[in-house]
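Now read the record:
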Amino acid sequence: MIKLAIHKKQNSFSDRWISYCDSNKISYKIVNCYDSNIMSDLNDVNALLWHWAHHEPEGQLVARQIISAIEKMGIVVFPNINTCWHYDDKIAQKYLLESINAPIVPSHVFLIKDEAIQFIEKAQYPLVFKLRCGAGSQNVQLVKNKYEAKKLCRKAFSKGFLAAKGYFADAKTKVRNIPNIEAFIGKMKRFPRSVKNIISNRRLLSVQKGYLYFQDFIANNQYDTRITVIGDRAFGFLRKVRPGDFRASGSGQILYDNDKIDMRCVEIAFDVSKKLNTQSLSFDFIFDSENEPKICEISYCYQSKAVHDCPGNWDHKLNWNKGHMWPEDAILLEVLRLISES
């Protein structure tokens, strides 16, 4: 008999996993992956599902290591280490994607200040500056000239940058994305907890310094293409660039239109997922001056509802399967498949 372990965390994928198991009479137990006894707690299960995120300092500290250890027990884990070791680490993603010759936006990493300055003097502007961590276009800015680049360089190799932004960072976008008064009231109710979490994260997440990371700026993209691959399913939608900005991630302006999705993005996403042996991965694509799709970033975490609202999904042969599906359900079905094959 199959038995699952689920790390329960409110407002995470675990909510849907628990509901699915209850509805489909799948045996499971709730575990705490941060407990010192987590290994012995998993002795009687076939798989672990754990949706840890970038804003959890404890997850950033130990999740990858714990998952690596659990895999040695022969237990199916979501996310497996291939899926999550590069999560919220743009530098790791650069080297990983380059290793398999994936089509990525040209990226430049410097760990020595003098080498960074040499690049800055000769570079073509604008460039896109990024910290290695942060989601929803946090810690991303357009660098218009070498003077702005040098200012960032000095800071990067001295006091560094806070990884966790303040609550009012990107306030215009947050306000614009509130759909109604009920959502506004809900946001206000969560305000004290959100501020508390931000303060905690700022204390625990390390200051980002000792490196400089740029991506080439690719102009004339009015939206990006988000493809999410879960097993043999790919979900796709477009995200419009924010008004007066160059960033699409975090804009909240989603367009579900299959006719505007370039199928090369779906093919690349399936191909990369297969090569990396990942269970679930989202890809952000933009198009270069030759209209070739390029990967900006990848992530195993994403907004569940945005994926669910897709009108259907493609399989790896690019057959279209109509109908909405929660990504949590797709992940759980993929875990059950892996159990049956183990």
About this structure: The first strand starts at residue 3 and ends at 7. The radius of gyration is 20 Å.
